[in-house]
Design a protein that fits this description.
Elements: H1 6-16, H2 18-22, E1 26-30, E2 35-40, H3 54-76, E3 80-91, E4 98-103, H4 106-119, E5 123-132, E6 138-150
Antiparallel strand pairs: 1-2, 2-4, 3-6, 4-5, 5-6
Helix pairs in contact: 3-4
Length: about 150
């Protein structure tokens, strides 16, 4: 049975990333290519301007990139370390209502993992996650530079 079911990933949030869980972030779907999570703007995760706090958006966006990395590492069958080495965020619209974060970079992480396994050298890659409101308007975009390296 896969470790990467929606129920298991949300359970992981509760026990390993409780600030994300209690902010209302939930994983909605994951495949080898794409991950999706949602968070609803509410009192506990808002900023003084009554929109979704940037840090909550950051947690949700990092989550959708990170679970893709974790899934690909698990499927490789190898012991591989993973680390965010850089992050950049851009905010384009006030985030209110239900925000959906999507990352479609599964192929990028698969290639980086295959290369670190083949060469033994660490690899870096930039993964993008974008947040959309209920009208499917972009509210924020995040870039995460992930580093992966096979453990010796």
């Amino acid at each position: 049975m896969s470790k990467f079911t929606i129920k298991k990933l949300n359970h992981f949030l509760l026990f390993k990333l409780p600030s994300a869980y209690f902010s209302g972030i939930r994983v909605r779907s994951i495949t080898n290519q794409e991950a999706m999570a949602t968070v609803k703007h509410q009192w506990i995760n808002q900023n003084p301007f009554k929109s979704l706090y940037w840090a909550t958006q950051g947690m949700a966006s990092e989550l959708v990139t990170g679970i893709l990395v974790m899934k690909q590492i698990d499927e490789s069958g190898k012991k591989i370390s993973m680390l965010v080495t850089q992050q950049k965020g851009t905010f384009t619209k006030k985030a209110t209502g239900k925000i959906t974060f999507i990352c479609k970079d599964g192929d990028k992480i698969k290639a980086a993992i295959d290369k670190t396994i083949a060469t033994g050298e660490g690899q870096t890659l930039v993964m993008t996650a974008e947040g959309f409101n209920e009208e499917y308007e972009s509210v924020s975009q995040f870039e995460y530079t992930w580093s992966v390296k096979i453990k010796s």
